[in-house]
Every structure is written in structure tokens, then in C-alpha cells.
Amino acid sequence: ILNMDPPKHHRYRRLVNRGFTPRVIRTLEQTIDERARMIVDQLQSNSDIDFVADVAVQMPAQVICDMLGVPPEDQQMVVDWTNTMVGFDDPYWQNTAEDGMNAAVAMFGYCFELAQQRRAEPRDDIASVLVEAEVDGERLTDEELVMFFVTLAVAGNETTRNLITHSVMALDRFPEVAAELRADPSLWPSAVEEMLRWGSSIHNFRRTAMVDTRIGDVDIAAGDKVVIYYMAGNFDPAVFADPHTFDIRRTPNEHQTFGGGGEHYCLGANLAKVEIRAMLREFVDRVDSFTITGEPIRMRSDFINGINKLPMHIGTVAPAPLASTSASTSA
Known about the structure:
This protein is mainly alpha-helical. It has 13 helices and eleven strands.
């Protein structure tokens, strides 16, 4: 679907839009907040953690797997497959191209079995929506179902976890911002937008011009390859005043992190924002201090701006407010 043109793209995108509408995302907010609390609950005060493994990867993996209909006992397996597929050329994961292919085959097989289950017993999840959907009067083929499943699993896991990680790296670099957010939670929506501008999870994307056109003062002929570098766009001084200042009150903030609009604007943009805000707010509010203690281990990729590992020391982890209320009531 990432590489489809209209009108075919319109037809396929409409199928999954139903799982990512603002109404659907609103219904998920309480669950996402609860997951954020549970993730921080597992952290130990005054300890060394890997922020990626212990915090960032947990939220998006659980949420997208739930939406796809993957049962809890299978979710880590799906995450491992996506890691292998995306990082097969990354020395950190010590996987080969063959490992990546085997992971893809395993995920394809799993998706096929899940589709058969949903055809027999539909549920309230995206897998059921896809197996019941029709394009031009025909049901999706097994290959098309697999395409959707893999795209959503990888995009919903890899990109959001990296956005969360880049965001906490910015907060470590600018600790006064974390203090501002603790003092004034109303700043979170605009802060998340600035975090998205500051640390895109994708390096670049390439498209092919279908007709002769012109962008700015550059002529582009039909057939030319056009590459967008997200970080370059997000730090363009012609668009952003003082772009190298991390300003959580920046407005407007028309960053390109989710594609900048158009046919291929990120389907899960609203979901990602809710996840990032919930996870980071819970972490910042309850962890009184955090410090990155070593160099981030970056993914070797010219596509994904990924962080494989982020060593961090955290201070005191406060109990969740609901837990405190419950304890005082029972006392």
C-alpha cells in the first residue's frame, strides 16, 4: 500500500481507515494510559535500564498487536519477527538476510492462520475487518491480507517506538523541558509535535514523478526520482523560525514526520501521538530524574532512524496515582 497510486490506493486505504479513525483512537486512550502505567510500574527506582527495551518498545508493540487481533501470548513473537525483518542487515541483531527471509515467511504463515480464524469467528479487530472487506466486489486475497498485516505490524511497532526514544533523548538533552511539562501538563500536545519535528523515525522516502512538475525553483520531469529527507524538511529555516531550538510551544508546527499530508499521510499518525504523549507523560511525571549514561546504539539503516539500545539511569519511580488512592482508601 505504501507504493500504490490512486485510484487503487484509495480503495485499499479505505479498508484500514476504519481501524484508525479519531473515534476509534479515542476509545483506545484509556487502555493506552493504563498500559503506560503498567510499563512504568515495572521500573525499579535508582536503577539502570535500557529505555528502548524496558519502555519504548512495550507500548506500540502491545497496542498494534491488540488492534490486529494478536493474542498476548503471541505478541513478543510478532515483535521478534519485525525486528528480524527490519534489522537483518544490522550487526546489533546479528541476523542474516536468510534470517530476515525466514522471519517474513513465519509472519506470513501466522497471518494466514489468523485470517482463517477470523473468517470462522470474526472479532472486533482489524484482522476481522480485513477478512470481511471487499475491493471492487471481491474479497482480499491471502497475499493482500499478508501485505496489510505486515505493513501495520512493522509500521505500528518500529516507527512509534523510535519516536518515543528520540523524544526522551530530547528531554535528556533539555532537562528544563521535562520540568516545564511536570509543572504544566497542558503543554503536552504542542510538546509532542515538537518532539516529532525534532526526531523523525524515518530518514527518507523516494517517489517517482508521474508528470512534469515544479517544486520551488526546481523542474522535475516525469520519471525523475524525488527523495524527501525528513530531518532536512523539519529543520528548514524557511518554514521554522530558529529551527535548531527545541521549543515545545512552537506554533504553527507543520513538520513532515508523518509525510506532510497527501495520499500517503501516515495512517497511524493520531494513534502514534496518543501513544507518545501517554508513555512520555507517565514516565516524566513518575520518574523524578533520568540520565542517558552511554552512546545510543543506532540501527544501521538508510531508511529507519532507529535506536536499538539507549542506556539510562533513572531516579525515584513514584507509585501510580491510582495505586496511591487505592492504598489510602483501603487504609
